[in-house]
Design a protein that fits this description.
Layout lengths: L7 E5 L2 E2 L5 H13 L2 E13 L7 H12 L3 H13 L1 E2 L5 E2 L14 H14 L34 H4 L5 H17 L4 E12 L2 E12 L29 E2 L5 E6 L8 H10 L8 H10 L3 E4 L2 E4 L1 H13 L6 H15 L5 H22 L8 E6 L6 E7 L2 E5 L9 E3 L2 E6 L6 E6 L5 E5 L8 E2 L2 E6 L6 E5 L7 E4 L7 E3 L7 E6 L1
Antiparallel strand pairs: 1-2, 1-7, 3-6, 3-8, 4-5, 6-7, 9-24, 10-11, 12-13, 13-14, 14-15, 16-17, 17-18, 18-19, 20-21, 21-22, 22-23
Helix pairs in contact: 2-6, 2-7, 3-6
């Protein structure tokens, strides 16, 4: 047909291929180039993708973090504003969403009927869905409130845009689209899987084409750290058809350590392990930040030395309490008390005697922990003392040990060794007021050069501009030119001993 598509090398004969080195990958490239290609099999099937249910507190916090970059605290604050009501033109003050602390995905019949009428009028009868979902939560669901939805689906984001702030509109749009999509029909795809023989080697190409968009015409749920590659559309192929290589590309991948939690993934883990309730997810995240157990670093929650110490001590002296199963069971018992199915005296009576014993042992034996401040060589210009390194919610900073008499503080200067392309000063690592790391010139405010990506000393070989290190969820780190008009990229020479290879046509 003359059409191009990509395929992935999967096995030799009946054995799955494990490519452990660059030499092995290059040998396979040479072998593939010598082979003729023949289509072994073509499998076609129809695939349906159901919509996601309306938001719960947990899923709203996760999706707002992924799509909008909101912290869980910000999500709940903005949702509270939408729930309590805002001035909307002639309507006056109106509550725009239902209660935002819920783990239910239930929707009232009135709201569902209104949504179906809107879908029929805006998209057509065939876009109407069943709106039924199985609960994703394994334990007991608190069903006093519906799932999070707009109070009136006819109040579209476009209609409300003149009356809402930017953050209010972005969160309302997310809630409105998710709810409307939840009441729509599944998306339908034509999926094709093609297996190709190249001598003893076997490759696989997969493709997918939208047959009916359904709910995806409005909204698709995002994924964190597990993004699927964009589906390709395959040409019409038949068994026995011969093909030819256009290019063989060895691609480099790395064995990654377990990822640190983001706020979104931490909330997801709390929900999955049944720790806490919708009303406690945001306060839990804020508490560990406020107490200095973790710090925000490039959207990740990084444990601090204090966090490790507290965890070790609590695990040593309160092992039964620092336990996921205990927490989930206690949450369930407290629910029973709230619903009148258990007496609080009985629940406390079963728990407290053993806890009191552990508490007494901890008081007697637990050493007083003091995380000593690291003394720096920087002298406080106000009082002459050597400043110390403190841990704040956005990382480390310098502070005068003479507090409260002397309240002098300074950011820690962390250099990159890279010269500013605009003035020649050194580019420093800095932290924004929201905790996000960026890179700026030491001569600010005289020089305003900034970048979100870490600069490297090497200059672009094509245009001479600054090169930066890029990181994405779908591929290993790489170097790229900072000049938006130049597309030069090159691999980052990292982790060769841990690298795995894949070969595709």
């Amino acid at each position: 047909t003359g059409e191009r598509f990509s395929a992935r090398l999967i096995q030799r004969g009946e054995q799955k291929l494990e490519i452990g080195s660059e030499d092995e990958a290059e040998a396979l490239v040479k072998e593939l180039k010598k082979q003729s290609l023949r289509v072994l099999s073509v499998n076609r099937r129809e695939r349906r993708k159901n919509p996601s249910p309306p938001f719960t507190t947990s899923t709203l916090q996760q999706e707002a973090a992924r799509r909008l970059g909101f912290t869980v605290k910000k999500t709940m604050a903005v949702a509270q504003q939408l729930y309590e009501g805002l001035e909307v033109g002639k309507e006056g003050r109106v509550g725009l969403i239902t209660y935002m602390r819920t783990d239910s995905i239930r929707v009232s019949e009135m709201a569902r009927s209104e949504a179906l009428s809107y879908i029929t009028a805006s998209f057509g009868e065939e876009y109407k869905g069943s709106g039924t979902f199985a609960s994703r939560r394994r334990g007991k669901v608190q069903d006093a409130h519906e799932g999070i939805r707009p109070t009136q689906v006819s109040r579209t984001p476009k209609d409300l845009s003149p009356y809402l702030s930017r953050d209010q509109l972005r969160l309302y749009t997310l809630i409105w689209e998710r709810f409307l999509a939840s009441q729509m029909a599944p998306a339908v795809y034509d999926s094709v899987s093609v297996e190709i023989l190249a001598g003893e080697l076997r490759l696989r190409a997969t493709g997918s084409e939208v047959k009916f968009p359904g709910h995806t015409a409005v909204y698709e749920e995002s994924q964190e750290g597990n993004e699927e590659e964009k589906a390709q559309v395959l040409p019409s192929l038949e068994e026995g058809e011969t093909l030819r290589f256009l290019k063989v590309s060895p691609e480099q991948h790395f064995t990654q350590p377990p990822a640190m939690y983001t706020e979104a993934s931490l909330v997801k883990a709390l929900e999955e392990k049944e720790i806490g309730r919708p009303s406690t997810y945001a306060p839990t995240v804020e508490t560990i930040l406020k107490r200095g157990y973790v710090v925000r670093e490039q959207k990740k929650l990084k444990p601090t030395e204090l966090g490790f110490i507290v965890t070790d001590l609590l695990s040593e002296y309160f092992p039964e309490i620092i336990d996921e199963e205990f927490t989930a069971e206690m949450e369930d018992k407290l629910d029973q008390v709230a619903e009148g199915q258990a007496e609080w005296q009985q629940v406390v009576g079963e728990f407290y005697p053993a806890f009191a014993t552990q508490l007494q042992v901890a008081k007697e034996r637990m050493a007083q922990v003091h995380v000593a401040d690291e003394v720096s060589d920087k002298v406080c210009e106000l009082c002459g003392r050597n400043m110390v390194i403190k841990q704040g919610r956005f990382g480390k900073f310098l502070a005068c040990p003479g507090f409260p008499e002397c309240r002098n503080t300074k950011p820690i200067r962390e250099g990159t060794g890279v010269k500013c392309p605009e003035c020649g000063g050194e580019i420093l690592v800095k932290t924004s007021r929201h905790g996000r790391r960026f890179y700026g010139c030491e001569n600010y405010p005289e020089c305003n050069f900034v970048t979100w990506d870490r600069p490297i000393e090497k200059r672009c070989p094509e245009c001479g501009a600054l090169m930066v290190r890029k990181e994405t969820k779908r591929r290993p780190p790489y170097f790229a030119c900072s000049n938006k008009e130049c597309r030069h990229k090159e691999p980052s020479p990292r982790g060769k001993d841990k690298r795995k290879k894949r070969v595709g046509s």
